Amino acid sequence: MFDLLIKDGTVITVDSSHMVYPRGYVAVKDGTIAGIGPMEELPPENMAKKVIDAEGLAVMPGLIDGHGHGGHCLIKNLGDHYEDWDNMAEEIYFRYTDDFFWYAEGALAAAERVKFGITTGVSMIGSTPRPDGLESLEAHFEGALKTGIRELSGIGFCDGPWPKRPIRYENGMGVEKELTPMQVVENTERAVKELNGRNSRQMCIVAPGNITPWGDDTREFSAWKNREMARIAREYGVAFHTHARAGGIEFAYETTPELLTPTTSLTHSTGLSEKEIKILAETGAAVFHGPTTRANINVRCPVYEILRAGGEVVIVTDGTAPDRSYDIWRDMKVFQVIHRLHEHNDRLAPPGRVLEMCTIRAARALGIDKITGSLEKGKSADIIIIDTMQPHLQPFGVLPEARLVYHAQGGDVMTSIIEGQVVMENRRLLLCDEKKIISDARKAQSELFERLGEERVRKYTSYPGLYELEAETVR
Ligand SMILES: [Zn+2]
């Protein structure tokens, strides 16, 4: 007897043979896909505790969002045109947040992701991470996991000058502490040791802010940071996840080549040289490309050059501040448009490849492709069902991958299943109270604003030139 049977759907497997069953089933037992195939092959005596009739609907693997930031959902739109947004974000995260902030944001972000069909999410804790302790990360995990999502989160080195002076709040009182680079190494290692695998959906990874040397940092110091981060990822067998920009990949290749592996994910990777493109192809390190990010707007990520050289590229949201969404369906579409536009070639980025970039290819780069990323027997039952019985998706059936990538949006996902557990059904989250998640998020933001004080909030929420051709820079 199966625990769950999804029947009569258009099943898009995203497996290596790109199999699609126009009328297919997926059977689940003990959290795992126990059977998948055309309806004719479903033996009639097979019973299930729960049956989902997916007639006319699309059934596909849960999406993987390979990059986002813990904290960002509560500072969205703040300082949108602030001159130094990164420093603003770091100041907020390091000096004005408490554990409740990280908990409430973690839950809100995961709820947003699950409702858009993301069953696995990756989050760096902070803008570049806040690594002065494990509390922010633990609170983030606690919030996120309430929704049932599979969450890969982590800390590591933050960018910028040392020492850092984070403030920890307890009972409303803030206490400033000094944070040294050595403490970051200790905390990152402790996080992976203590938090990874607390349950099957909680994966603690190593996630430093960048591998590219920062400002005045010496090459020796930057290489030491990278070496320590790579060592922790290797020793504990977890993914290494970070940002990179021009020069960073070559720097890592010269100083810490062990850092560049097929389970290394390098978000942005903008402005890369030809040499760096070759290094990516040689080492298999994957580019986690956020097509809608400011990083990619300001300096281009040479996506097709990387792909043609044999490198790996995954699509991510980089959710959600200051101006993005966890609706990864938007990123799929934008990805196609910007790369087609760049090369004036409307054949680039066909829909099947784009789907892989948010499922199996992302899973591979994170080292979790044996668990998730495609619908195959023996894999975790991470499945989404899309409500295709809507005007913008009908008539549905011909080229289903194209119909979904070109026309679907996050709100069309009606059911999300993770490890065989239905976490959203008919757009209602089942494991948590969505109203409470929203009220907690509102409370956490208003408490953040109180700590920030009126003047800062006024600065961060101002937007001179909102209706002009070009917004003014805010200082
Ligand atoms: Zn990012």
Small molecules (ligands, ions, cofactors) in the structure: zinc ion
Q: Name the CATH architecture of the largest domain.
A: Alpha-Beta Barrel
| Main beta sheet strand tally, sense and closure | 9 strands, mixed
Structural Rg? 22 Å
CATH H-level homologous superfamily name of the largest domain: Metal-dependent hydrolases
The share of residues in extended strands comes to 15-25%
Averaged pLDDT, please? 96
Helix/strand/pairing category? alpha/beta
Secondary structure: helix percent: 25-40%
Q: Under CATH, the topology of the largest domain is which?
A: TIM Barrel
Poorly predicted runs are none
E-strand count: 20
**Can you tell me the CATH class of the largest domain?**
Alpha Beta
Number of helices: 15
Termini separation: 63 Å
Structural domain count: 2
Shape: globular
